[in-house]
Design goal:
Layout (H helix, E strand, L loop, with lengths): L20 H8 L3 E5 L2 E4 L1 H20 L3 E2 L5 E3 H5 L13 E4 L5 E4 L4 H8 L11 E10 L14 E11 L2 H21 L6 E7 L6 E8 L5 E5 L6 E3 L3 H8 L7 E15 L1 H6 L2 E3 L5 E3 L1 E8 H12 L16 E6 L2 H16 L4 E4 L5 H11 L3 E6 L8 E5 L5 E4 L1 H10 L1
Parallel strand pairs: 3-7, 17-18, 17-19
Antiparallel strand pairs: 1-2, 4-6, 5-6, 7-8, 8-16, 9-10, 10-13, 11-12, 11-13, 13-16, 14-15, 19-20, 20-21
Length: 415
């Protein structure tokens, strides 16, 4: 992509109405556009990041036999009444409306009930179990106060997966497999070293749920971890979890963290309330066991910005960056030809390049490359025409060297 063809522009001005670093930088760098408090649109640059995050998550969900679907955002009132979660006293984040015929509908904030209702049409026998389905879906939650930029909004993209089982044992085994799949996903997203599976409140369904919390100064939660970081407990369940694990809570250190995933075992509670049963091998009717698994896709994007950004701007991990290389052209006709040729060659070798072909000062181009956080910068300039070399800079370290074209291609194509 040539920057002259990109409709977005960078900005030196920090948005006055944004306190969160992730939103400030994403807006300045042209990744998101703020529609209103807690609601953001994603530009071509932002969408590329989201799609890279989704691709990693999708691969890991497919690896545990998840089947991708997409549910509707509009939800029937009757679907949620059976479990009591249509009641605003029980769930206080619904956006609700009416159809032209006065039928009440809600806008999906989650999909457990909706998934279970759909799946009962296809699951009749124990032979149909287990099964697991997931989606990437825009959720709508009427939060009282949207804050933390894209880390906590009223509209956000979420991956939610739901597994259905015949027995508690089968659900437990699959649940553990998904935990490992989540660990792999966060590792690939660049968050593996600072993301932990934590004990959290299970609400009405189970004593504990599990959250995936990333240590992050911008986080809203307090996490207690031990010295070797093999134990992580949310502050809200510290005493209970310490007793459950047989550890001294005084041996744990408090750190700020951001939730990037949450998983629950609902057991048979929802199926029993909704009347969702299967026929077992002995011919009896039994309720289906349900578990759910969420990852906030846009939230992860915000956490990555918060964790890795420096004083110059965003620093994307290679796995999620919108482009791998930021190509800067400085100079006259010869430099332009060399830059154009390199752009074409890298593209032919499958390297995603954002080509800064603007007639701007070098300082402006370098500042934009740092603000946008592309992992590798390559500069083609008049100064290096005679030697036929390129200036190569690594975004996260600032290390700069001069390389021949062969050396550059080896580094960018094979690494």
């Amino acid at each position: 992509m040539r920057i002259t063809q990109l409709f977005t522009k960078t900005s030196k001005t920090v948005p006055a109405d944004e306190a969160a670093k992730n939103a400030q930088l994403l807006i300045q760098a042209g990744y998101v556009y703020k529609v209103m408090a807690g609601v953001y649109a994603y530009t071509p640059l932002g969408l590329r990041v989201l799609e890279n995050i989704k691709s990693i998550v999708r691969e890991e969900m497919n690896a545990v036999n998840g089947q991708e679907i997409i549910m509707s955002s509009l939800q029937r009132k009757e679907t949620w009444e059976g479990t009591g979660r249509w009641d605003d006293e029980v769930v206080d984040v619904w956006f609700k409306s009416k159809l032209k015929d006065d039928t009440e509908v809600g806008f999906g904030w989650s999909h457990e009930e909706a998934i279970l209702e759909m799946m009962q049409q296809f699951i009749k026998s124990y032979k149909d179990l287990p099964t697991s389905v997931y989606q990437f879906q825009t959720k709508l939650r009427n939060e009282l106060r949207a804050k933390s930029g894209i880390m906590r909004g009223r509209e956000f993209v979420m991956k939610d997966m739901y597994s259905l089982h015949a027995t508690q044992e089968d659900m437990d085994q699959y649940y553990d497999k998904v935990i490992e799949a989540y660990k792999r996903a966060y590792e690939r997203l660049g968050l593996g070293d600072s993301t932990f599976v934590t004990f959290a409140s299970g609400g009405a369904f189970t004593k504990f749920s599990h959250e995936f919390q990333t240590i992050c100064d911008a986080g809203e939660d307090i996490l207690y971890v031990n010295d070797d970081r093999t134990v992580a407990v949310n502050e809200e369940v510290l005493d209970d979890a310490a007793n459950e694990l047989g550890i001294d809570k005084n041996d744990l250190q408090a750190v700020k963290s951001a939730e990037v995933g949450n998983i629950f075992k609902f057991g048979t509670e929802k199926a029993e309330k909704m009347g969702v049963y299967y026929t077992d091998s002995d011919g009896t009717q039994k309720p289906i066991y349900l578990a759910s698994y969420g990852i906030g896709i846009t939230r992860v994007m915000g956490v990555i910005v918060e964790k890795f950004a420096d004083e110059k701007g965003i620093v994307w991990p290679e796995s999620v960056a919108p482009y791998r290389v930021y190509l800067v052209r400085i100079g006259g006709e010869e430099a332009t030809k060399r830059a154009d040729d390199l752009y074409a060659e890298l593209a032919s070798k499958g390297v995603d390049v954002l080509y800064d072909d603007r007639d701007e000062r070098p300082g402006t181009k370098f500042a934009d490359s740092e603000l946008m956080g592309i992992p590798h910068r390559v500069t083609v300039s008049d100064r290096l025409n005679e030697s036929q070399k390129y200036e190569y800079t690594v975004r996260n370290t600032g290390e700069t060297v001069e390389l021949t074209q062969h050396e550059l291609l080896v580094k960018l194509v094979t690494e």
